[in-house]
Write a structure and sequence with these properties.
The protein contains 9 helices and no strands. Helix content is 56%, strand content 0%.
Length: 198
């Protein structure tokens, strides 16, 4: 799994004190014509499966994260199913699951039926044009598993495009590349709520 150290990024962002006035968020998935590599990654991702490797680690992580998001997802069964799916999709995409939780916190506050003014849908706020781009027009972006598969694949692609730089990758995901207000929000959520050993 990639190791991404977020603390240096947080310190750098804090030192810069770049607090650009938040623009209306646009999903990173709003570009006119997506890169061919991302289309291939999304197509391939829709057929993959993976999950936890160690049962004990899974239980510890699930209990810990469940307590952290309980106020946003009060139904325990729904919350545990979400965490299982989200962890699986984060691992499949080689992402830090806690970073994905922070993105979801900022994007939808764990509302699987979230719909933005720009039309982005679901828990990770995926734009519907992706379905046609990869030849899956019938996919339901309000379906939790489908949305997580799209969202984590897109996020991983943009982080790879930025050679692991979280600021650039998160900016691309949100459609605010070159600005720091969105990555700052994700890093703040990560540090305040989802970082392990806090």
């Amino acid at each position: 799994m990639r190791t991404r150290t977020l603390l240096p990024r947080l310190l750098l962002l804090a030192a810069l004190c770049v607090l650009a006035a938040p623009l209306l968020a646009q999903s990173a998935t709003t570009q006119e014509r997506p890169e061919e590599g991302l289309l291939d990654a999304l197509s391939d991702a829709m057929a993959e499966e993976s999950g936890f490797e160690d049962r004990f680690d899974a239980q510890v992580w699930m209990v810990d994260m469940s307590a952290r998001i309980e106020r946003f997802m009060p139904d325990e069964r729904e919350r545990m199913e979400f965490l299982r799916l989200m962890h699986r999709e984060a691992r499949r995409a080689d992402l830090d699951p806690q970073l994905v939780l922070a993105v979801i916190h900022v994007e939808s506050l764990f509302d699987r039926f979230a719909l933005s003014h720009a039309g982005a849908r679901g828990i990770m706020q995926v734009m519907p044009f992706w379905k046609n781009e990869i030849g899956r027009p019938d996919d339901n972006l309000f379906d939790l598993e489908t949305n997580l598969r799209y969202g984590t694949t897109i996020l991983a692609y943009y982080l790879d495009m930025e050679n692991g730089d979280e600021v650039g990758g998160l900016g691309r995901y949100n459609g605010s590349y070159g600005q720091t207000w969105y990555p700052e929000r994700v890093f703040n959520a990560y540090q305040a709520r989802y970082m392990l050993n806090r």
